Backbone:
């Protein structure tokens, strides 16, 4: 039996049992689970290992990259600029980022970016030769490219491009990078152990990613949107120090289950830190359903808010590989399941089921 550390308060034994079974069955090799209710943590579990060699046990402060769950926190950086009046959700991006306003993108808005309707769900083919850490060149490739569809006409998660688009907009409109706004405003205001660019002192807490199966990257429905730039799904790259200390904000936040679940626990609170940070109007706009339709990248019908997926039962966001977090609109608890073993979402779904939640993605209407 794999050792599980942490606690599950009375009434949450099923969560511990499911987590234990995932580890014992080998479906999980290293992960953390956190559940919050009524403003406090009622489950904090860690199990398995933080490295493939099984030398470092997974701790409750282990950091891991949750891929697209990162986008939630990139969104907040954009909304700080909206709060401060440097940006508008509905003003054309080209008003600020002049180079962007070409080839059918003249009227594209920040709202369309945040709801994955901007028509740039992947980097253009011309970016195939670029280094994945060449931020300047990758931003320029998006500014110069034609959208794949008319902005606002279709849905498709902007899988790798999301952070670079927000960063380009912030640089032009606010004179600050996404990282500067997040690290200087968002992270300290919310008290997050969640990092774009892991500091030197926290590198020893980062878990190494591994594939659940060797062909995992090629089996993904979203694989056609994940080819450029090369290396984002390569664990050799993802486990490198240079990647962990760089910013690729669509996917490379590093955080803990407790930090993410704690954030989701206050997501809808009228007196919570997020509402205090954004103000009541922008907080409501963040969580409001914005668009429902078939998402080409996800391959399913869903509803986007400004950065979250929402339906009648939850407000959620997951990441490719199996990490997920959600606020249950039905049961009024928050949960995060963060893993280093890149596979499907069946593990998070099993934890959700133990809580009476359903992680199926459905459009809100």
Residues:
């Amino acid at each position: 039996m794999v050792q599980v550390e942490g606690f599950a308060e009375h009434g949450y034994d099923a969560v511990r049992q499911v987590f234990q079974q995932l580890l014992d069955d080998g479906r999980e090799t290293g992960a953390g689970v956190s559940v919050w209710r009524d403003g406090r943590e009622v489950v904090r579990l860690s199990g398995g290992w933080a490295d493939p060699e099984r030398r470092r046990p997974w701790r409750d402060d282990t950091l891991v990259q949750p891929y697209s769950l990162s986008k939630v926190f990139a969104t907040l950086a954009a909304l700080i600029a909206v709060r401060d009046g440097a940006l508008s959700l509905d003003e054309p991006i080209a008003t600020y980022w002049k180079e962007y306003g070409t080839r059918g993108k003249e009227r594209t808005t920040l709202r369309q970016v945040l709801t994955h309707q901007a028509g740039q769900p992947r980097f253009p083919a011309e970016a195939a030769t670029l280094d994945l850490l060449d931020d300047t060149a990758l931003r320029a490739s998006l500014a110069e490219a034609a959208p794949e569809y008319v902005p606002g006409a279709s849905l498709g998660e902007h899988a790798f491009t999301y952070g670079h688009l927000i960063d380009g907009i912030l640089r032009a409109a606010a004179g600050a990078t996404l990282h500067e706004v997040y690290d200087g405003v968002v992270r300290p205001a919310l008290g997050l152990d969640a990092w774009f660019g892991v500091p030197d002192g926290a590198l020893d807490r980062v878990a190494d990613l591994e594939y659940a199966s060797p062909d995992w990257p090629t089996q993904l429905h979203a694989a056609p949107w994940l080819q450029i730039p090369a290396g984002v799904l390569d664990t050799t790259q993802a486990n490198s120090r240079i990647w962990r200390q760089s910013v690729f904000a669509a996917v490379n936040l590093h955080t803990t289950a407790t930090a993410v679940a704690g954030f989701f626990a206050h997501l809808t609170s009228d007196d919570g830190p997020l509402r205090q940070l954004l103000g009541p109007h922008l907080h409501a706009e963040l969580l409001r359903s914005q668009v429902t339709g078939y998402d080409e990248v996800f391959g399913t019908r869903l509803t986007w808010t400004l950065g979250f997926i929402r339906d009648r039962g939850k407000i959620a966001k997951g990441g490719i590989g199996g990490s997920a977090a959600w606020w249950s609109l039905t049961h009024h608890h928050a949960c995060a399941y963060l893993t280093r073993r890149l596979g499907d979402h069946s593990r998070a779904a099993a934890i959700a089921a133990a809580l009476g939640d359903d992680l199926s993605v459905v459009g809100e209407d």
About this structure: The mean pLDDT is 97.
